[in-house]
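Extended Data, panel c. Modelled sequence:
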Amino acid sequence: MNQGKSAQLESLARAAETLSRPGEVLSGLEQALNQLCEESFFAAANLRLLRGNRIEDAISAGDQALREAVKAPILRLPELPAPGTGPAWRAATADSRGPALRNANLGGLITATLDWGSERFGLLELFLASPEQPPPEALAAASVAAQLVTSRVACAQENTFRDFFENAGVGLGIGTADGDVLRVNR
């Protein structure tokens, strides 16, 4: 695991490049998280896509043993910070998956919420081997990784809406309360 600042930036740049490629969103996210785990501070990663307070989908990265540990059943979602708050560190002992994380030699994790405006749609967890508070570079890298994931998921949602809107079997229009037409399908 390379922990230099330039290696960290290169790892994030490669993850960004992977996320910018067209194609299936979930497989692109998984590939980008695996790249991040192979080339950075992080031993494993877990991305939970939420719908309200319910976990809709999850993607794990890292080697197989670490993937199993981070996917251990969560008894409860951790208390999450308000939208717009930066990533937060906590020791594995403070997580409901603590025993599984310790058995996999994971000492702690950085949690970054994925917010679009006031809507929370996900939670990115980046795991470290050390139980010590990580260096500021790790928190900064987690913040950038969360922004990259947020951009990719938001872009995919926009594309899905656009495809649905343009290909609807009936005429659809979007307008303002004042009656101005913003958009119509073909």
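The chain has a mean pLDDT of 78. This feature is highlighted in the accompanying rendering.
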